[in-house]
Amino acid sequence: MKRLGIGFIGGGFITRFHIQSMIEDSLLVKNKQNELSLTEVGLQKLREHFIDYQLDLLKLERELGDYFQNKIENLLNDNIKTVALYGASDTALSLLGYLEKSGIKIVCIIDDDQEKQGSEFEGLSIISQSELANHSIDAILITSVAFEKEIKSNIISSFGETYRMYTLLES
Known about the structure:
single chain, 171 residues, alpha/beta, elongated
């Protein structure tokens, strides 16, 4: 049997109702010290849930990949060959491989976070928006969903229509 840490139970992830239900379903047992442990059945159910979770992640990755591919096809249809990504984030990281496979060259990554500027993200220079004029690009791909409108507005204010802009949410 696997003993459950008090942090897991005490952390509010499982309510008393859920605990009682898991005991009734023989997934958990209490010992004399009132500590909870997984039974063999509980451990097997946990493994099954973990496998289901992994399968759901793989499905999500495929769907996200299809979504990214559609966005990249828009870039290719517009004859975009070089881009700057706006936002050194997990979204940018997810998108990098798809862009590289498409033949679109990622020149740099723009980020407003001064802590990130001057460093690299997956081998790409992270620059400030003011440094963009030093780089030859066909378009800017905004990878930040949360700040998309603000970034777009800032680019237009700073550069007018100099750069074509693409976002992840707009079609």
